[in-house]
Amino acid sequence: MSSALIDLRPFRASAAFTRLWIGSTLAGMGGQLTLVTIMLHVFALTGSTFAVSMVAVAGLVPMIIAGLYGGMLADAFDRRIVGLVAATITFASTLLLAVLTWTQLETIWWLYALSVVNAAANSVGMATRSAIIPRLIPRDLLAPASALNGITIGIMVMVGPALAGVLVATTGYGWTYTIDVVLMLAMFLGLWTLPALRPEGTIVRPGIASLVDGWRFLSRARNIRMQYILDIIAMTFGNPMALYPALGTVLLGGGAITTGALTAAVAAGTFLSSLFSGRVVRYRWHGRGIQRSIQLYGASIVVFGAVLLIGVWLPPVDENTTNLGLVIAACLALAASGAADNISSIYRNTMMQASVPDSIRGRLQGVFIIVVTGGPRVGALYAGTLATVTAIWFPPLLGGFVIIALVALLVRLTPRFRDYDAENPAP
After folding, report:
1. In this entry, which stretches build a coiled coil (predicted)?
2. For position 409, what pLDDT does the model report?
3. What confidence category does residue 175 fall into, taking pLDDT thresholds of 50, 70 and 90?
4. Residues 280, 273, 414, CA angle at the centre, nearest 5°?
5. Exposed end of the chain (fewer CB within 10 Å): N or C?
């Protein structure tokens, strides 16, 4: 009988994968800590949920450009070197953010600018690291490796935002950014110890020809294209993160600590679903797995919106008082959304890494990273703008229903995706 617990065989199969996993986990935890701190910092300077959503939106175009170009770099040069350069840029921008804050020279525009630099560098780094993993472990361990990536996401998003909320509330912004500077050093260890990893197959130099070659492949890869579309739908209509700072002030109470708790709840769901992913990674029908998990994600966001709607009818709160029952209910709904999104991610990552040739994997991973990180930024604009013109509970309540309906329609229209078999991967 197969175990329900997470499959740890990738650690035993590859010491290089293990080091990269540890470095990515620690650096990612610091990156999430900084992301939430910037959101809180912007809200403290402006008092505007729309301004908070613009932290995500401002980096969208640079992130898209960096993701596409970074994927071309990863398909043309030693992926270890490309990853190290991206990590260096991220480290330098975070260090500058800490210095500006300690010297009290930070402004809203500095926060926007450095968040853009971080977003762009992270796009390159994530695309490169994802393209590296299939070179470090055998194909039959890609799904367990994706589940271990869920553990990484769970730890970094659960610990980082919670720590950010506590540090901002007790010590201020400078220490939070400084801790990220220290944690970023772990990424250099994970990348520096890798062997040289030049792409296999025909190498196309970065430029228009490389970009056209990648898009030509994607135009034929209907399964890959459909998973991109489904994830964009989920993240556009079901990512209420831009609302968290305001929720901690005007509806749920608790201020920065509630903001950190809500963000950490999503990660807790991600972590637990990976911890008990032993049977999930053995399910071979990945298209159906993606459909069902994204629809479950939409249902969880509906419940979150309903919890916020209930809060409208309860006595008002502020940063110093908390509606604990509502906070717990909201966290449970978000934990369920994190679990569902992680299961979808396991299947989507495995589909990407198993069905795409190594010579083009960097470019497709670049597009994949744009989808994964760009969708939430568009979602931040959707949630922040709609909450401004309607009510803070309305975007998640509406968005969850939109996700459920659109996913059902699109998968029904694409039977090839629904019947995708992991034992016979085809892009």
Report:
1. none
2. 95
3. confident
4. 50
5. N
